[in-house]
């Protein structure tokens, strides 16, 4: 069913007015006030209501993940994981918890193209009995940088040039050459994995390594992964050029699937390390720009996520939703790396800027239960805690804290290095990519992204690629020389020429079930 058709059908089902039209203050609107011609428009409160509201009805656009969609659904526990975590939401086989999921593209503006080569977001808000749990995931299992101070500079290079207001490959490659640890994430983005065939047919990864604990205080270290039950599908560059003619391809696909009751679903699992085993591995498992090595962890299934309801109002849900990685629950203390620590603060700050300090009191973000000492500020304030004291401790009727006896007593400290490590990027090229066709398409995409930049910038990038993997660097260098000497027709024909007869396929290789990560 077409999305427009389904919406029209829904609207036609409502055949009678829902009530008498009023102004925002509740005054009934006379039919003569619905016309402003030949009248004193400034004494018409209905007219003033309309004009002043439309002047202010847009809120700040998100800096990243601006364009997206969303849906409601549920999470069902399918396996007993009480050995690892006491979190109520993940315990009790058969238990269902309401969720809201926001899907998004990282770099696109509100009117951007869903099929652009981009990292996708998949954020899950669990409405648990112990508070909101936000699990913020990406379509790529490794992140671009690990030092939180790089956040502003990195995303400035990916957004529009301040002079031309155009996306600029030169700034991206310049930053990458200065910060080689970003290469792994860039290779992921430029590979077949860079354009999934819609939100339904992609996996999602929480990227960070989370500390969790059981009711005895025993701690474990995990990576949360969501595996699509629709099967992973990707788009090559020329396929994306075709489907990208519909700028809302991803959002339309998700909306229509749910309207047609073809409910998309994902399996939630976690890769697990013990406190003891994590002391004896030869790499940093908290490093967000790399993945865990095969044989150093086990994979444990947790449950199943199903999306089965589209929002009734996009703005009130998708646009007003606010996800914060710091929204955690007992049994999931969370990641300990410095990047995560900064994200906890910066996400709260951006929501306050975009939605106001009471963003968690907006319906879509509101927990099932809350009692606090914060008061006032930008609405909504709900009942503003009525007559309860606004300070703690007090001798009256204010809320009191509790004692969590299962909270781990030992502190685990992570020391991070700023040394450059190109091994994860080399491993991705040689082992994560499944065949020469995938490798050649990665090479072609790198070439296309390097063509607009200066010769000096190309030399810097080629030097980095050769240091990462000599074969990768030489292929890019040879392809660049060919592309610069041979005028190419416009895409997608240019991409087909560069493929050098490698088979084109939208299928992606299947990773062994218990070894989803690439090592």
Main features:
globular, heme, oxidoreductase, Catalase, 29% helix, metal-binding, alpha+beta, 15% strand, peroxidase, Catalase HpII,  Chain A, domain 1, 519 residues
End-to-end Cα distance, whole Å, is: 42 Å
Task: List the total number of helices.
Answer: 14
Strand-residue proportion: 5-15%
Radius of gyration, taken over Cα atoms and rounded to an integer in Å: 25 Å
- Sheet bearing the most strands, described? 10 strands, antiparallel
Low-confidence stretches: 497-519
CATH fold-level name of one domain: Catalase HpII,  Chain A, domain 1
Counting DSSP E segments of at least 2 residues, the number of strands comes to 10
Label the structural class.
Answer: alpha+beta
Which series of helices and strands comes N to C? Answer: HHEEEEHHHEEEHHEEHEHHHHHH
The CATH superfamily name of one domain is Catalase core domain
**Residue share in helix:** 25-40%
What is the architecture of one domain at the second tier of CATH? Beta Barrel
Mean pLDDT: 88
The CATH class of one domain is Mainly Beta
* CA-based shape: globular
Structure overview:
With 519 residues, the chain is an alpha+beta fold. Among the domains are: 19-57, no CATH class; 68-144 and 196-365, Catalase core domain (Catalase HpII,  Chain A, domain 1), CATH 2.40.180.10. It has 14 helices and ten strands. Strands 1, 2, 3, 4, 5, 6, 7, 8, 9 and 10 form a ten-stranded antiparallel beta sheet that branches. It is globular, with a radius of gyration of 25 Å.
